[in-house]
Design a protein that fits this description.
The structure holds 2 protein chains of 2 kinds. Helices cover 40% and strands 13% of the residues of chain A. The relative contact order of chain A is 0.13. Helix content of chain B is 69%, strand content 0%. Chain B has 13 helices and no strands. Chain B is globular, with a radius of gyration of 20 Å. Classes of the chains: A alpha/beta, B mainly alpha. At the A-B interface, strand 7, strand 8 and helix 8 of A face helix 2 and helix 6 of B.
Chain lengths: 328, 337
């Protein structure tokens, strides 16, 4: 309990500091109520491509092409004006984007530039699959202000801090920096709590993605390395590819050899909106059923949207925490 | 003394003798044995197979033996399908993957997944077989309208036609957000093969027997419609039998394993280069060679990134591509094709 209290105290003080900082920034120019974009007030954002951009505060028309960004804004109570078409069913907290009231502008990989152009956006936020220099260059022809808020990280330990930086940056654009910081501090505290429990459990975990009958394993350093690094599960000791960012195809024998105590399963088909061959059916076989994970009843299907599509948003991290907690 | 009574085999073509079959079977048996000893579960190694303990047997029966059987049947059937196809079209560059058959089967799987929402292999297989037959039939119809029916032209037409089918499939899948599945269906892999998940593949054995029974007649219809009709054969009927045999084999493999590129093209070509053109004689050798080729690819795929896997389609694609280019260059130089 003492450590937790310390973290809370720390979190609170951080929040206060951030709030003060924001107030300090804001006081330079008079805050001008709703639609402050007209005031010419800006915040300086250093984006994922290393550019420093002056972004208008509270921009009126905002287009985002990445679900992490959109969900983060949704967590902060901000609705964007156009989103990519969604393959999957969106989570409940983002139901407003599911009905078709808000225009869709292309897909995650392929933004519909003409449709975006018609909206005359004040701010375009790209990221993740659309976060690359080519798309950025196209977008800059459309809007004066374009930023890439992908949460890319080199070391596994940088993952949460990078996400935190992005979430707080998004908050600062809409004068919700303190709120954003508070969300992240709460999540960080929860992650540390889960980390301690997972490490104490002594279980090894394996993260697998199942897609159409084929399973792929993800180790430390992979895109789902958060399981080991932040959430504190030990890995199964399977050799890890140096590159590591993509999963590697495995046979079902792999499960008997590395015998995970916890199995976190991402159903890629479900994540991309298909209901073919449910992942757990693929893993329900004589080999997987001999593992500790099966006998401990710790084969956990994780939320595809949070883990696979919008991994860098507060609600998604909360969902990840809940998924991992379910295995403790 | 008696050698003069026996016609000497043509030196360039070799010919098939029983000894070739037995060598093939022996090589395959050794390869199969080694394959049973390789897998992510190190508790079962090459030394543990005679006799296996109960836990070792569990791994063998659930994973290794089904995988070996699937590898052998997929390799043999796609190669035989290629051989039959090359004979009935009298063209060495025609195979299930250069005639739209595989692409049509993939379209069938997509249709099955979209409309029947079923995970049943059998439903998918039936629909894939139907579309594969229709797709191949359209190809044969096109073939009869082509002026230059020899050499690489036919293969190019087939590849383009396959490309059109694949484009339709991709478009439909794109509309339904199922593009990611196409990858799985078009990339053959044995990593998901377990007891209970490959048995429909045994269909190819039945179809293979039919193919063997009609082998001689396939040789004859390859010589042309008028030639076959003059010999009293029903050309159309035989053509359809061949088409059905080929389509069933290709579709079943695509449904259970996924597509394996070049296999149906290169294996029959290399075998006939060495052994001659008589379908009935080279069919068993082709089956063995195809099984052996896929077995080698699968074992390599399991060992290169051990304990992870590289899909068999990737390995076969690399090797097959090289052999395909060699075959084309060879034919460009004017060698008999």
């Amino acid at each position: 309990m003492t450590t937790r209290t310390t973290i809370r105290t720390l979190a609170t003080s951080l929040t206060l500091t951030a709030a003060l900082a924001l107030t300090a920034c804001g006081s330079d120019s008079e805050a001008g109520g709703d639609g402050a974009a007209a005031d010419g007030e800006t915040v300086s954002i250093t984006d994922a491509q290393g550019r420093t951009v002056d972004v208008p505060v509270n921009p009126e028309v905002v287009v985002a092409t990445d679900w992490s960004v959109i969900r983060t804004l949704s967590d902060l109570g901000i609705e964007v004006d156009a989103v990519p078409a969604s393959n999957a069913t969106l989570p409940e907290d983002m139901a407003q984007y599911d009905g078709g009231d808000i225009p869709t502008v292309g897909t995650l990989q392929e933004p519909d530039y003409e449709a975006i152009n018609e909206l005359e956006p004040d701010l375009i936020i790209i990221g993740s699959r659309s976060g690359n220099p080519e798309i950025l260059a196209e977008m800059e022809k459309i809007s004066p202000t374009v930023i890439d808020l992908s949460s890319r990280f080199e070391e596994p330990a940088d993952q949460l801090p990078t996400i935190e930086e992005r979430v707080v940056q998004l908050g600062s654009i809409f004068e919700k920096e303190a709120e954003a910081q508070e969300l992240m501090d709460d999540l960080t505290a929860q992650v540390e709590e889960v980390n301690a429990q997972a490490a104490e459990s002594g279980e090894t975990a394996l993260f697998v993605q199942v897609s159409g009958g084929t399973a792929s394993a993800y180790g430390p350093g992979s895109r789902f390395g958060i399981v080991y690094d932040a959430f504190g599960y030990a890995d199964t000791g399977a050799p890890v590819d140096e590159e590591g960012s993509h999963g590697q195809e495995i046979s079902q024998e792999f499960f008997t050899e590395y015998n995970p105590g916890v199995l976190l399963v991402l159903d890629r088909a479900a994540a991309i909106g298909s209901d073919e061959a449910p992942a757990l059916d693929v893993l329900n076989n004589d080999l997987v059923n001999t593992t500790d994970a099966a006998s401990n009843d710790k084969i956990q299907l994780v939320d595809g949207f949070a883990w696979y599509i919008a991994g860098a948003a507060p609600s998604s991290i909360q969902q990840m925490i809940d998924d991992v907690k379910a295995t403790l | 003394m008696t050698t003069t009574t026996r016609p000497a085999p043509a030196p360039s073509r070799g010919g098939v003798r029983a000894v070739h079959l037995w060598i093939g079977v022996a090589v395959l048996a050794v390869g199969g044995y080694l394959s049973l000893g390789i897998g992510a579960a190190t508790s079962v190694g090459i030394g543990d197979l005679f006799p296996p303990t109960q836990s070792e047997w569990h791994i063998l029966a659930t994973s290794r033996i089904p995988r070996l059987m699937a590898v052998l049947m997929a390799g043999a059937s796609l190669s035989v399908a290629g051989l039959i196809m090359q004979r009935i079209t009298a063209n060495r560059f025609v195979s299930p993957s250069t005639s739209g058959t595989v692409e049509a089967a993939v379209l069938g799987i997509l249709i099955a997944t979209m409309f029947f929402n079923s995970t049943s292999l059998v439903v998918k297989m039936l629909i894939a077989i139907i579309t594969a037959i229709l797709g191949t039939m359209i190809f044969l119809q096109m073939l009869q309208r082509i002026q230059h029916r020899e050499g690489i032209v036919v293969a190019l037409v087939g590849l383009m036609y396959g490309g059109v089918l694949a484009a339709i499939t991709t478009f439909v899948a794109y509309q339904r957000d199922m593009v990611q599945y196409l990858d799985i269906w078009t990339t053959g892999s044995f990593s998901g093969i377990l007891e209970g998940r490959y048995e429909p593949l045994y269909t190819v054995l039945v179809v293979g027997v039919i193919g063997y029974l009609f082998a001689d007649r396939f040789t004859v219809i390859g010589m042309g419609e008028s030639f076959a009709t003059n010999l009293g054969l029903n050309y159309k009927r035989l053509l359809y039998i061949g088409l059905i045999v080929v389509s069933v084999m290709a579709a079943v493999v695509v449904v259970v394993v996924g597509a394996i590129p070049f296999l149906g093209l290169i294996v029959p070509n290399v075998v006939t280069l060495l052994m001659g053109d008589n379908v009935k004689k080279v069919l068993p050798v082709t089956a063995l060679a195809g099984a052996g080729f896929v077995l080698a690819c699968d074992v390599a795929g399991r060992m290169i990134t051990y304990p992870y896997e590289i899909p068999v389609a990737t390995i076969a694609g690399v090797i097959g591509g090289v052999v395909f280019i060699w075959l084309i260059l060879r034919s460009a130089k004017g060698a008999a094709v």
